[in-house]
Amino acid sequence: MFTRLYLEDFRIFKDQTIHIGNTITAIAGHNATGKSTILGILGNTCELKSKFGTTITDKQFKTEFSELFKGSKAFDKRSGDIGTLFYLPQDNDNEIPITLRVTWQKWDKDSVDSNRFRILPKWVDHSISEKVTAKKLSVPSFYLGLSRLYPLGEDTSEVIEERKFKKKLTNDDIQWLIKNYKYILSIDDSISSISNYEIFKKRSGGVNTSHYDFLSNSSGQDNLMQIMYLLLSFIKLKTEYDNIGEPWPGGILLIDELDATLHPAAQIRLIDLIYKVCKQFNFQAVFTTHSLQILEYLSSLQIRNSDINIEYFTTANGKLEIHHNPPFEAMENDMMISTYYLTSNNRKINIYSEDAEARYFIRHMLADYKDHFRLLDIKLGGESLMNLLYNDPDYFKNVLFILDGDKDLAKTKYAELPAKHCNVIFLPGNEGPEALLYNYLINLPPTHEILQENFDKGISIRMFKEMNPLTSPKYASYEKNREKYKHWFIDNQAMFDDLNIMRYWCEDNQTDLDTFKKTFVNRFNILASRTKIPKIN
């Protein structure tokens, strides 16, 4: 497999490295940043001779840079090395460095001028000799460029006839194509058959239904079928290698602007199919994209999959910069030419808590992150809050719920919600915030600063015990202990503020505080990914 491409000096690229994922790599960024050029260089380094296998449209597994991109005698180098591509063989831990050099050649023996711009490899095939060779790696490659989008309706041919290819599709092949085709495009039409054709620079297939035939397929349908034909071609090639016991060298499928003509849901489903096929049949896919939906989805997949890579190209600061696996919000801001600061007032996570007393704790414990969230002024019990999430998860999964520490959901119908949506956390301790604070005060050591610095105000452990909300006549009219503590808290909040009680509580309960803050940041960042809000670093 290919691991990375280093370009020392070629066009816009100066001393830069492109990292290639083990399974799929997305190259994204603004226009004119060299994304498509990278595809051409990668594919140009390898090919599979036709005698070892072809695509299901009878094409060679080959990419030729000079057939895809034109050289400029005014700006491109006349000759010399431009960089190195690194390839890791399937049965070897030693990377093979492949030096890349440019040259200008004649198109054929009758040509007068050398107008064919080529990039040629230089490497040592140790399995044969120690001599430097200019041959291409024997690895199947295929480049799908934008010529695949040439519409049938604009072809000048009077009649477009079906084309028969040498390779025959089995019934299993056809069912695989139809099943994935219908799923990706979300269509219910009954497909009776697939017809192949050839126009301009492309060979493709279209579906026939009871309502329309292959000549009436949309650009999106046509584009998808071409991509699926290539995926199936790699599947069949790998299977052929396995059947004859031939070592599989891997392969690389290159697609320019993968998202073109496809609606957002189809883009995501196509990504899933490409990833699944590439991983199962051990070849790589590299594609360019401008789709924020794809970039957001790949960013979420990277949390669990290390074989996915995003290379983001930008000239935002004048010269080309390549960012390796940047946060999605960074790519979104650059794509949209916006910043976090332009919309920061609206880019906050809403926090739902049980009551004002809980919010008092939350404000003090999460003071470092106050600019990242909006603490809503509501009063609902823990189970009532969970009922919101239970009945309307589409909206409330993007809200952070902070429940009191004494809340136990284990025996309720909401037990699975915290793990399912990752947006529910609990205040420290095993009791409500009011009881937690009262028990903290009556258990202060005699030498504590709260007591020593405020003796003149009558502050003492004896005083705290005298105001015990569970025994004080002042709160006897309240039946529930929770209500007694709540009114005790309300009555004494001015004292808590004056004595800066929460600062001391945080200092004296540092371990609990750190655990709570760590959990908060973790859950916040999960919601930030969902809602396209900058994460907390």
How does the SSE layout of this entry go?
Layout: E1 2-10, E2 13-19, E3 24-29, H1 35-44, E4 47-48, E5 61-62, H2 65-68, E6 80-87, E7 96-105, E8 116-124, E9 132-133, E10 141-144, H3 171-185, E11 191-199, E12 202-209, H4 219-244, E13 252-255, H5 264-281, E14 284-289, H6 292-301, E15 308-314, E16 321-324, H7 328-336, E17 349-353, H8 356-365, E18 373-375, H9 382-391, H10 393-396, E19 400-403, H11 417-421, E20 424-426, H12 433-442, H13 449-453, H14 461-466, H15 481-499, H16 501-508, H17 510-531
Parallel strand pairs: 3-14, 3-15, 10-13, 13-14, 17-18, 17-19, 19-20
Antiparallel strand pairs: 1-2, 1-6, 4-5, 6-7, 7-8, 8-9, 11-12, 15-16
Helix pairs in contact: 3-4, 3-5, 4-5, 6-7
Structural class by helix and strand composition: alpha/beta
CATH class of the largest domain: Alpha Beta
CATH topology description of the largest domain = Rossmann fold
Strand content: 15-25%
Structure, described:
The structure is a single chain. The protein is built from 17 helices and 20 strands. It is an alpha/beta fold. The chain folds into two domains: 2-338, P-loop containing nucleotide triphosphate hydrolases (Rossmann fold), CATH 3.40.50; 349-531, no CATH class. It has a six-stranded antiparallel β-sheet, covered by helices on one side. Strands 10-13-14-3-15-16 form a six-stranded mixed β-sheet, sandwiched between helices. It is elongated, with a radius of gyration of 32 Å. The two termini are 33 Å apart.
